[in-house]
Input
Amino acid sequence: MKITITQPKGQKFLPFATIFLLIVLSITLATWQVYAVEAGGNSSVQIYLPLFQAVLMVLAIALGLTFHSVRTARIKSQDIMGLTHEGEGASFKNTEAILGEAGGGIIRIGSDYKIEYMNGTALKYCGHENRDVTGQSIYDIVQLQNTNDKETLKKLLEQQFENNKQEDKEKREWVELKLLNSSGELHLLKVKATPIYDEKGETVRDIVVIMQDITSDRQAMQKLFDQASRDSLTGLINRHSFQNYMELVIAESEGENAQNVLVYMDLDHFKTVNDVCGHAAGDELLRQISEMFSKRLRSTDKLARIGGDEFAILLPQCNIKIATLILNRILDDVRNFRFIWRQNTFVVGVSIGALEFDSGYRIADIGHLMVAVDEACYAAKKAGRNQLFIREMERHEISLASETEHEDSWESTLKHAIEKDEYELYVQPVKALSQEENAEKINFFEVLLRLKHEGKILKPGSFIPTAERLGLMGGVDRWVVSKIVEMAGVMNKKDKKARNNLFSINLSPDSIDDAEFPAFVKMLIKEHGVDASQLCFEVSESDALANFSKVQSLFAELVALGCCGSLDDFGSGFSSLNYLRELPIKYLKVDGTFVRKMSENSVDAAMVEAVNSVVQTMDIFTVAESVEDEKTAGLLAKMGVDYGQGYYYSRPMPMADIDDYRTAA
Output
């Protein structure tokens, strides 16, 4: 770069004016001499005029040479950068000012690597704004953060001193270095070194190091990357980044005997918090839960938020036994956690699905692994929520077909199961705890669904998530209701006592949205001669709050037919008690999150008792889910809870075994 700056007019033209006047005076004297000769003037004048003329010309020439020499020497002495050559009319005072205010850092060093010049920007980068660093080694002033960067700078400068051909520019590329200055500030610098050659252009005399601070640019780029790869609310990576990390882990473990564990987690009752207290409360809950999860994980584990209230974890180089310890600690943390928002207290849970996979799986299998662990999570939710379900899976279960082919296959399987009656109905007894209810001889059962597939009986977690994604649950619900009504009609004809059977049937959001569903139920009741009071239709609290007006209308129509309604999984927040006054329900199931450890946790026990007390004033019967031991059953009976359901009383059984169960009871 060539910089040419004009001098102030008074300084630039004064020497030239002096020389010009001397020349003019000499010419004037010569003219006077000629005039004198022609006029016949004094001979002495004719003698001395040439002498004066010669003296003036000598003075003019001497003054011109002196000025040129002084000016050239001044330019050389003031040219710190070594870029200005003789004859270039640049004032270095102005050049120095420009270099000092340059946007980038500039350093000039000699062959001994000592600093000959350093502009203000470079001094600022290095934290030496008010210090004269001339004569010091560049390696002492430019403090780089790590050893690799130090070696890079050293190699860069050495290469420039070895670069003795001006046309060779291969070694003049930009490099990036991290500078940690004396003030503790970190700068990411883009650095380039340019050699300055001697007059012959053969030997490198000095080096000019040019620096550009790209810290803010990189921060902006990182921010954009984070926005694309991370969840802005929790700071966790998103689904896309999580799958990229899975690909990396699978690729790096290829050929090794490595075990990994994939985890899918779904918060229980999160939607209730959102609906009752607003999205601000839901956002804060997600932040707190994310921090809770992170504290239990290893540094090598990767946690992601992949949906609204859904999380995933990849535990690389980990077997299922170690993963179980980690996940059970997460479960304990969540069970003991209480989310408080203003005057509301919420107990939330988390349903966790996990599966182990080894290095034999390929990147193409990731989509199928995600589907499988999602199904495991659903199984945990259906088994009572707030628990861990571990899916055991063989590699041959992962189809190498595309995801579309996989779902098309399941869609065909699920539709075929309806046509060929390949679903099976199971029931789990709901035990009356009070003598008053026992006197009524009501045989209360919750209806559960299974699928016969390839010689196995699959639980809901294996096929319900896929049916929901494919929009098939409406058809599945109708199949269940039609079979229950048909079988209940057969039982009633065989035994009049069978009319005391009460069947609680779970409805999906698809049926809640189905305006024709009540008419369908009415048609079945009439066709099979079944008493409508034998049917109870069950909707989860989260689905009820998400579709409140539709659930309210649905229950009203079903109750008008003589059926009854039930609210399942109740208990994520006391504020939701307000909804019960507007729902025509007969039964309310207290979420198993409260019940499962109430014998060990006085807070859970107090919550169950409080819910039971309030609900019974509304003439609603309470059902406690997930009763697994005698102590819990005794506490529930003492509190006056109406019904209990869980493994303590009975495991699920095929519907065909109801008669044997009633006889034994």
About this structure: The chain is about 50% helix and 20% strand. Confidence is low (pLDDT under 50) at residues 1-10, 83-94, 399-407. Residues 43-78 form the longest helix (36 residues).
